[in-house]
Write a structure and sequence with these properties.
Length: about 90
């Protein structure tokens, strides 16, 4: 049996906090890919970026669910349950 995400009830209708990684924009840094927190709308950089702000945001807030903010990508991730989310 496949284990799923147990935090789907926390997903909100969010507005992205910025057009790029919110924290990298503040420091003048760059990023590789963007991730959107589906709990509060924070936009952070992915784990391939040197600052890993999306994961840092999770550790600071315990907001478990992100989705890709990259054009053409339609996937999400739950940090706590360590599972990908079905885009449907």
């Amino acid at each position: 049996m496949t284990r799923g995400c147990t935090h789907l009830d926390q997903i909100q209708d969010v507005t992205p906090s910025s057009r790029g990684c919110e924290d990298c924009l503040k420091t003048g840094d760059s990023w590789v890919h963007l991730r959107l927190c589906l709990i509060c709308g924070h936009v952070g950089c992915c784990d391939s970026s040197k600052n890993r702000h999306a994961t840092r945001h999770f550790h600071q807030t315990n907001h478990p669910i992100i989705q890709s903010s990259e054009p053409g990508e339609d996937w999400g991730w739950c940090y706590i349950d360590q599972v990908g989310l079905d885009p449907s």
